Amino acid sequence: MTDTSIFTRILNGEIPAEIIGETDRLFALRDIAPQAPVHLLVVPKSAEYRDVTELAAGDPALLAEMIAFAGTLAKEHTEDGDFRLVFNTGANAGQTVFHVHAHVLAGGLTEKSVG
Ligand code: 5GP
């Protein structure tokens, strides 16, 4: 058994995935179970932070990099560049992988999920 996160295993090439981009500290892949016409995940290469609150406290610059990279990817993968950014935080909010990641949801979303 190992507690290595699924994203670390993908990054290490142990599990196949469609990696669509990277920066020095981040990589991006398509979600295996898309919830929108475009559903990407932006993930720090380091598994140091479990969720976005830990990341915000420990490395706010990396959180800002995640948001900027999400915007770059949305421009590349949609016609309008519009996107929704979701951080599921905690099991009761639907988080299943405890290696912080942002969901980038895009491609003609017209219904608000909140508000
Ligand atoms: P969470 O539920 O933690 O917010 O998001 C984890 C996401 O990772 C889910 O949307 C799930 O579909 C995605 N996921 C889980 N395992 C894999 C995998 O092996 N490959 C890819 N590409 N996505 C995965």
UniProtKB/TrEMBL annotation:
It comes from the Bacteria. This is HIT domain-containing protein.
